[in-house]
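Notebook B, p. 112. Complex prediction, attempt 2.
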Amino acid sequence: MPILVERIEQGTVVDRIEAFAGARVLEILKLAPTSGAAPDKMHRIALVINVPSRHMGRKDILKIEGRELKPSEANKIALIAPRARLNVIRGGKVVQKTDVKLPTKLDDIAACPNPQCISINERGNSLFLNEKGRLRCTYCERLFSTYELVV
Amino acid sequence: MPDLISIRDLDKTTIEKLLQSSQTMEKNLFTSFDKHKGKVAATLFFEPSTRTHLSFQTAAQRLGLSIVPYSHASSSSAKGESLRDTLKIVDGYADVLIMRHPMEGSCRYAAEVCTHPVINAGDGANQHPTQTLIDLYTIQSAKGKFKGLEVRLIGDLAHARAMRSLVYALGMFGAKVSLVAPKGLEMDPALVAEAIEKFGADITQTDKLDLAGADVVYACRIQKERFSDPYQAAKLQASFRIMPELLKDAKPDMILMHPLPKIDEIPPEVDSSPHAYYFKQAAFGVPVRMAVLDYCLQQ
């Protein structure tokens, strides 16, 4: 039986998120309650998890009412949702579709997997540079696949 | 003022300038050369070091700098002070910070925290850029060029920090590199791929120890401390020794380099061979590090 989620009039639908990655997407986009904002100041959000998908088998969908995500913001989620598609909604209609792409810089999105790296031992946040789809830690200079950074 | 954190941060022109400046420093090594008199260099060595520490201190003193040595054992970091706080404090005292630390990326972090230039004297298994510059300077001094030279890197290439940066630099300068490592101790394929992709480097790999045809042979020790089985480590080390009879196959002008300390991968009888170049290589540590200090203290 299908799950019914209200249509949004104005905002963004992030479609084709890897199944069960939606909650992490909320955190990266700073839309989760952990971002510190009071619930009454936050956007109305629907997160649909593990729904059937023709392209992906299973996927998550995120609907955000009242906020249009810019592609530069949404690109941050490419690490955990590389196939995600951003649909900007105005007047209940999709006015723009953009596929996310891995940004040139990933600032504090994922921890460095190298246990000897200073970024996880003292610095407290990470910075990766995109080298043709692989990510180099600015600190320990090791190169990782996106898959290795998803924990 | 620039930091010196990684060989990846340096372009070919900057490296060439540093090598040229090293030559000037070498020529003036024993004359009064107080270019940076009145300035202070702090040496922060969180790990043991002999050659790097001493050659940096000598280089700094030959340029007229005073040295403030930091001792990890008697410092506040031994009481639990953060690296950041230690760096902030030393940055307030010195004009340049020379740092070795076991954590990879620690020197890049130090450069973010400090207002004065930071020189990486080894950050864990990551980088040791001044060693790479010394290696390049040694090859250039002996051979006068890099392009077309056959440079053979031999030993535990999986763990030797000096080799990791050197492959990148040799690729940049157009040398032909052959990597000779026992099975299981080969160089990280990502590093080889990087040198090939960025510079079109000519790199081959084998596990057969042979010196024939090489212009430069660079040996490093098998890092026994990385093995759970000491017998296996000893066996590998024995099969990768540069014995005098092996040198018979070498080109007459081949130079044999080693980052030192050498343990038993090069026996003492090789030291008197005309090929042995490693003590000269170690001595170049002073003029090259003088050039690096001068570069980092430029206005």
